[in-house]
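Pipeline run #58 for the internal structure catalog. This entry was flagged by the ingest filter as a single-chain record with no existing model, so it goes straight to prediction. Upstream metadata was stripped on purpose; only the residue string is passed forward. Reviewer on rotation: M.T. Logging verbosity set to normal.
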Amino acid sequence: MLRSERLLFYTPFIALDVIAPAAASSDAEAQRWLGSRTEELVQDEDTRQVLLSMRADDDLSRFEARDRLTMMRKLEEHSDGVVRLTAVHLADGRYAGATIMRLESGEIGGWLAPGYRRQGLGIELFRAAVQLGHQHLGLKVVRAGAEPTNAASRGALTTAGFTPAPGPSRFTLGDGREVDTRWYQHVQDTASRCRS
């Protein structure tokens, strides 16, 4: 577990820890920047709202067995070569978003639920990704890409200590869209890997 001023981060241990943050990134505003694959989204608006209203310690018994099975499959699908940190807002216990790190490349991504955007929480999200990479996964370089027009993401990365870095000028998102990209990196000469 990692903790920032307003967020608690942990690796998912129940399916809700994956599906609720997926709901947090499934709205049109988030998908403008993230471009996730269709199967990664919570498409139904009512389901999305229920998930976004849930607290991390809520009981899943109100979901039908088939829904719980779908959530468990989501958990399994998202574990290949990616480390995920679920973000929970400390003040209200609700799922606020997530950050992911690709182990092979050290590239991170992150998002916040609609109710937690424009509050400076992106900085805390990216700082947690840096801490995960450098202090837990043994990575000396953590990288992130952002569209040049995504001022919120670029500002959060810069404030979190990322600096401009070389990288491809175009990137293909999960939904197949190709976008202009600016790359950033966070470098730390001493990195450590925890046993877990």
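catalog note: The radius of gyration is 16 Å.
catalog note: The first helix runs from residue 16 to 24.
status: ready for reviewer M.T.
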